[in-house]
Each structure stands twice: as C-alpha cells, then as structure tokens.
Amino acid sequence: MNPPWRRSSSATAPARFSISSLGTFCSFKPKAVRVKDVPESALWVHDAHDVGAALVLANMPSPAFPIPVGVFVDVEAPVYEEILLEQEQRVLSQRGPGDIAKLLSSGDTWKIG
Questions:
Q1: Where in the chain are the domains?
Q2: Given its phi and psi angles, is residue 29 left (phi above 0), alpha (psi -120 to 50 degrees) or beta?
Q3: Are 20 and 29 contacting, i.e. CB atoms less than 8 angstroms apart?
Q4: Of the candidates 46, 43, 32, which has an alpha carbon nearest to the alpha carbon of residue 4?
C-alpha cells in the first residue's frame, strides 16, 4: 500500500500538503493527505522562491510527512567563482601582476644554516 502522500502522477510534480489554517506562521499545521481526497484549494503547493515555506518543508518530521527531496529554495545570489575572479581582476588593475620572488624575499625573512 502506498503512503497517503504518494501520488501516482509524474515524479516531477510539486509537493502538495493540506493546511489546516491560513493564519499566522504559528498556527500553520500541515498534514499529509491523499490528493484525490482533498479539494485543490486546500492544498499547499511548494514555491521554491519562498524561503519561509522552504524552512517549513525542511523541518517536517518523518515519518508523519514524506522526506522532501529536491530544490527547497531558489535564491538569486552571486557565484563564488565570479566574485573571486572580479576581485582578482580589480587587484591586478590596481597593483599590477606582482612578483612571487619579491614577495617571498620581502618582510621578515631569515636564512637557516
């Protein structure tokens, strides 16, 4: 027997849960239901651009709820490599390419032996 949250449609369908109230965050009480037994207006369809909803989805306890898999939240943010390359180009334009031999022999250095 399939769990009550399992759907027979494609695996790419969004997660759907029933919500018992639409008040404040504290009164939000999701419960797993069979999609065919609940009107669509009572189902919550996860929106990957809603950070709060992603938090709720990630904290739903198992086994009462299905284990969420996939994209919980989609946030526009700079890519680390792009920031690093921009910083490197900025420093090169300000200070030039630099000299590793000069760097290694500058500052406090000493000879051993």
A1: 1-77
A2: beta
A3: yes
A4: 32
What are the tokens at 91?
């420093």
Task: Provide CB contacts within 8 A for 30, sequence distance 6+.
Answer: 17, 18, 19, 20, 44, 56, 60, 65
Question: Could you please report the per-residue DSSP string of 2-47?
Answer: --TT--SS-TTSPPEEEES--SSGGG--EE---GGGS-GGGEEEP-
Q: Is the pLDDT of residue 7 over 80?
A: no
pTM across the whole model = 0.43
- Summarised one tens digit per residue, pLDDT across range 51-103 is 888 888 888 888 888 888 888 888 888 999 999 999 999 999 999 998 998 88
Residue 91 region by backbone torsions, left for phi larger than 0, else alpha for psi between -120 and 50, else beta:
alpha
**Angle of CA points 27, 2, 47, to nearest 5°:** 40
